[in-house]
Amino acid sequence: MQKGTLYIVATPIGNLEDITLRAIRILREVGLIAAEDTRRTRILLDAYGIDTPMTSLHDRNEREKSAHLITRLQEGTDIAYVSDAGTPGISDPGHLFVRQAIAGSIAVVPIPGPVAAVAALNVSGLPMDSFAFFAFLPSRRGKRRHLLESVREETKTMVFYESPNRLVSALEDIADILGDRQIAVSRELTKIYEETLRGTVGEVIESLRGKKVKGEITLVVSGTATARPDVSPEEIRARFQEARKDSTSSTRDIISALSEEMDMPRKEIYRHVLDFIRKESDDKSS
C-alpha cells in the first residue's frame, strides 16, 4: 500500500487573498485537513469553496492526535496540516507531528506562504540579510529580561512576537538592556488596521504612551551595529570620570550618553560606574 503525503500548508495571516493557488488546490485534493483551530480554518475554506473534512490538531492534543493521523497517512490518506494563521510550526504546533511523520518514512511536503516574522522584516527598514527569530518574548518580566540579556551582543536583526498588553513594558526592558536601538513594531499585518511604527525604542515608547494597543504584534529590533570590542572596566570608569568633570548633567544622564557613545547597554555601564563611585567613597572615608 502506498503511503499518504503530509502537506504543511501556510495560510493567510490576515487577508484571505494571501493564499497561493497551490495551497488552495492541495486543501481541495487531500483526504483530510488537520487544523489548529477548525473554526478559524472553516472561514478560509468557505471563502474558497473547499469542503474537505477537518479534524483538530493543537498544542493540547498534538502528541495523542499525531499518532492517529500517522496511522491514516500510513494507510494512504493524504493530509494537509494548517495552523491558525501563517506557516505551521513557526511559534505554532506542528513540530511533533512532522517529526513523527518523518520517523514513519512518510513524505512531508511544504506548501510555502505567509510568515508574520518575514512580513514584518520586509517593512521594518532594518537589515534582512541575516536575522534571528525568537518567537514570543516570555510573559514574566524576569525571564524576559534574562532573554534580552542573553542576546544583547547579537549582531543580527532580531524578531520577536509580543502581546499588545505587554508591548510597552517589553519595550522599556529592551531600552534598559539593549539600549535605544532602531526598531519596528508591526501590528495587525495584512489586516484592515495594519500599522508599523519605526524609530528608536524611546521614540516608539513615547508614541504608544496613553494608547490602548490592539492586535497581534511583531517586533523587529536592530542587532548591535558591529561586534563590540571588549571594553575594560577601567576605560568605562575613566570616560565617566572625564564626562563628570566637564558636565553638570546627572549621573543617570552621563550613563545614558556613554551607553549611546560606546554602543553598550546602560545597565552594564551603570554596574562599572557604581563600582567606581563606591570605591571613590571608600577612599574618601579612609
Fold blueprint:
Blueprint: E1 5-9, H1 21-29, E2 32-35, H2 38-47, E3 54-56, H3 62-74, E4 79-82, H4 95-103, E5 107-111, H5 116-124, E6 131-136, H6 141-150, E7 157-162, H7 167-178, E8 182-187, E9 195-200, H8 201-208, E10 217-221, H9 233-245, H10 251-262, H11 266-285
Parallel strand pairs: 1-4, 1-5, 2-3, 2-4, 6-7
Antiparallel strand pairs: 7-10, 8-9, 8-10
Helix pairs in contact: 3-4, 6-7, 7-8, 9-10, 9-11, 10-11
Description:
- There is one protein chain.
- By secondary structure, the chain is α/β, with parallel strands linked by helices.
- The protein has three domains: 5-114, Cobalt-precorrin-4 Transmethylase, domain 1; 117-221, Methyltransferase, Cobalt-precorrin-4 Transmethylase, Domain 2 (2-Layer Sandwich); 233-285.
- 44% of the residues lie in helices and 17% in strands.
- It has a five-stranded parallel β-sheet, with helices on both faces. The chain has a five-stranded mixed β-sheet with strand order 6-7-10-8-9.
- β8 and β9 (195-200) form a beta hairpin.
- α3 (62-74) packs parallel to α4, α9 packs across α10 and α10 (251-262) crosses α11 (266-285).
- The longest helix is centred in the last third of the chain and has 20 residues, at 266-285.
- It is elongated.
- The protein starts with a strand and ends with a helix.
